[in-house]
Amino acid sequence: MTQTEHDCVIGFSFGTSIEKGSVNAQLSKMMIDQANGRPIIADQKLVNAFPKSKQCIAHIIEGVPTYGLNQGLTTWRIWIEAQRYMTVNGLSKPLIIAQSYHAPRVIKQGRKIGLNSEVPDSLPTGFDPKSEQFWTRSIYLWLPFNSLFTAYLKLLHQI
Fold first, then answer.
1. Angle 157-125-115 from CA coordinates, rounded to 5°
2. Mean pLDDT of the region 11-40
3. Per-residue confidence band for 2, with pLDDT thresholds at 50, 70 and 90
4. For a tag on the chain, would you pick the N or C end, based on fewer CB atoms within 10 A?
5. The Cα angle at residue 158 between residues 78 and 146, in degrees rounded to 5
6. Residue 3: is its pLDDT beyond 60?
7. What is the Cα–Cα distance from 54 to 4, expressed in whole angstroms?
8. Mind listing the domains of the chain with CATH numbers?
9. How far is Cα 63 from Cα 67, in angstroms, rounded to an integer?
10. If we measure between CA atoms, which residue out of 94, 89, 6 comes closest to residue 42?
11. Which 3-state string (H, E, C) describes the chain?
12. Which residues contact residue 63 at a Cβ distance below 8 angstroms, ignoring those fewer than 6 apart?
């Protein structure tokens, strides 16, 4: 599937910071740049990170960020809500915008619900040193947390 074959864009936030230059601001801008007129589905954090994006968003997924195991607005919940919107609107080929270390899990979780997706080249690689989600503050916190969390998600059949 090439990027021109995608029929929508789904944005997944990373961490909790939204100020200019943050990873979420970078993701939000990339999401808008990659859309090329396609519907955008994104969580509220990404929409807030780039104020001009609100007028471009087809569906905003609202909720508080997750601060624990499978609570709040998780990657899985974003996928479930995005899938509902896509089904109602006849969409099936999403382009994913996510932080580069987060993207592999995002893609696996999408496959679990039956959606094959791809990511563009050069996703943001930064972390969120001020994040309220400690695991998104650095690669040193992300790698062990993501490994353990991925095992937990497998137990829940979310990967």
1. 35
2. 95
3. low
4. N
5. 85
6. no
7. 23
8. 3-155 (3.40.50)
9. 12
10. 94
11. CCHHHCCEEEECCCCCCCCCCCHHHHHHHHHHHHHCCCCEEEEHHHHHHCHHHHHHCCEEECCCECCCCCCCECHHHHHHHHHHHHHHCCCCCEEEECCCCCHHHHHHHHHHCCCCCECCCCCCCCCCCCCCCHHHCCHHHHHHHHHHHHHHHHHCCCC
12. 43, 44, 72, 73, 77
Sole residue written with tokens 């994104």:
42
Contact between 67 and 91 (Cβ < 8 Å): no
Rounded CA gap, 151 and 134, in Å? 18
Over residues 51-104, the pLDDT tens digits come to 776 668 999 999 877 766 667 789 999 999 999 999 999 999 999 999 999 999
Which residues, in sequence order, are bridge partners of residue 94? 8
Cβ atoms of 30 and 137 closer than 8 Å: no
CA 132 to mean position of chain CA atoms: 17
